[in-house]
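Input chain follows. Return structure tokens only.
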Amino acid sequence: MMTHTLLLHSVSYSGSWGQTLLPLDRFVGKAAELGFGGVMLMAKRPHLSVLDYGPAELAGLRRAIEAAGLRGTVLAGYTNFTGDLEHVEVPHREIQIDYVTSLARIAQALDGSLVRIFTGYQYGGAGYTPQWNMIVAALRECARRAAPLGVTIGVQNHHDMGVGYQSMHDLIAEVDHPNCRALFDAWAPALQGEDLVAASRAMGPMTVHTTIADYQLRPRYRYDAAIVNYDPLTPYVQAVPMGEGFIDYRAFLAGLEAGGFSGSIAYEMCSPLLGGGSTENLDSYARRFLQWFA
């Protein structure tokens, strides 16, 4: 496996699922203390919000990142370009494109060059093709606005639209802009039952970053008294330490590299962890990830 810059995603210490909350400056110190090479910063409160970080705050954050010896900063934006389609008078796409453009400016100020975004959740009140076209247009405009800043927009395979790897490949190809690339993760294709090697090889040429977390599946059931038995439900996905889950990350990363991937890799703890959300458990998971890569 080739050498990659390993980043820690600040969402891991954001308190979002009741785990330890570290302010952004303390998180930067934590990432360096644990041994990561860089950081991926959650671009919303309680971390790096466009409302809270002006020029002075960004200059201070950049100094903190540089003083900690970190590099390769990635911003993690949160978008849903198909949101609230029932109220077409509200310019949601324009608002989100402006948000992404602001993140591109912030990335430039932090000496970063990559902003992660999502596509959109499929809205039942509109056809698939109009929603697809809307997302393509929004991504193309985001990329066009980020390009002069030296920033790439990276699309993560998370939301409904374009989440299958073939569709993701089609999406990036249709946007057809050098500053719109894929941030292809193993989590979605693994849950979808796809061949991880085939998926990662196909996406490798257009992938510039990937984010990793490991999971086990917990079977769920609902009791049906009429048949004195249980109906199976979709399994719960439980976050576990790196290497203890069902996702074959060795095969996935080998496939990405075979396809040409040479970008950064982030570790995230973005759901409730087995063992709880204490600082000690979070730190243990983060160290385990680095040991897995050693």
